[in-house]
Amino acid sequence: MFLPLFLVTFLLSGGQGTPVRSRPEYQTDDYYTYEEIQNYLKGLAESYSNQVKLTNVGKSYENRNLTTITISNGDGRKDKKVIFIDAGFHAREWLTHTAALNIIDKLVVSFEENKHLLQDYDWVILPLVNPDGYTYSRSGNKFTNEIIDCLFAYTKDLAVKCWRKNREPNKHGCIGTDLNRNFGHGWGKGDSSSDPCQPTYKGLSEFSASESQAVRRVLLDLANTGRCVLYLSIHSALGEILYPWGSEEIKAENYKEHEEVVQAGIDAIANGNFQFPSTYKQGPSHSLYVTGGCSSDYAYEAGFPLSLIWELPEERGNLTFEFHPPTNLIGELVEETWIGIRAIAEKVMDKY
Ligand SMILES: *[C@@H]1O[C@H](CO)[C@@H](O)[C@H](O)[C@H]1NC(C)=O
Ligand SMILES: *[C@@H]1O[C@H](CO)[C@@H](O)[C@H](O)[C@H]1NC(C)=O
Ligand SMILES: [Zn+2]
Hints:
Layout: E1 11-13, E2 19-21, H1 34-47, E3 52-59, E4 65-71, E5 81-87, H2 94-108, H3 111-114, E6 121-126, H4 131-137, H5 156-161, H6 210-225, E7 228-236, E8 240-243, H7 255-270, E9 281-284, H8 295-302, E10 306-312, E11 315-316, E12 319-320, H9 330-351
Parallel strand pairs: 5-6, 5-7, 7-10, 8-9
Antiparallel strand pairs: 1-2, 3-4, 4-6, 8-10, 11-12
Helix pairs in contact: 2-9, 6-8, 7-9
The structure holds 2-acetamido-2-deoxy-beta-D-glucopyranose (2 copies) and zinc ion.
Zinc ion binds at residues 89-90, 93, 235.
């Protein structure tokens, strides 16, 4: 990928000879690396200092920053409700980070057309929960848009590209904790492994991983302010939007509200201007399989009245790509995701 424009601190000449620094432009031609994501966020914070604030909310096992971007309309009001979005819990889910960056771009750079979404709400976005795992998953042979089937990750290179967990070593030589099995709600239940060599290893104890601790801090901080409304965690690749509970076979008390806001997103995508729109399904997350230790159950319990897992699609038209969509599809996939999330946000703002 070319260096993002803002890295080159061009000073362009403005109308009256005033220097205007070029602004970050989100590119969908390839998946950003961790460094590119961080630089993109920093560029926004410099160019839009009135609307954007970056916060390092923790560090990964390998000492990378976990950085949230808080987006407002810059009016200084402190009592707004909050939508919190994260992405990239699972290393190989490459489309999730870039979908999160597109949301950021829409709210900051394309502010004018989306400013109604920032009237009474601030958005907090953590685009990369698991930077170590993600960086590892990008460390193999160059991705050449080949179709990768992670169920049959027989080669060393496929095992790298299909990596799921963080990169913290475990006692018996195997590496990594599944961060979305490490939360303190229903920890260890269902589809969750006690074997440190398995992809769904739950960790030594609840919140043993620094990355899940960081997400917990953000969730609890927001819950304590009483401003939290929606938590949305972006994963792939099932093409489903799921609500609590995951760790028990019961539906969230307000499942009807969940279903209503989710349906708004599904309909917006179906009615969007796409040749092969994704046909999302929805339901309680246990309908997939019972899973303990997930962030979405934890957030719901902590006080977010709406808590969703957004599972991006694994196919487009007749092409099934699972976790690694070819780069030429990034643009339309993240655009479609934005249309769904925007519709959900509008519905949420009507009701809460
Ligand atoms: C983390 O953020 C701090 C503060 O912005 C910065 O000084 C440091 O270089 C960052 N670390 C990494 C690994 O990028
Ligand atoms: C898949 O769809 C594309 C675009 O519609 C088409 O060109 C191609 O022939 C299809 N391939 C298969 C195997 O059906
Ligand atoms: Zn996932």
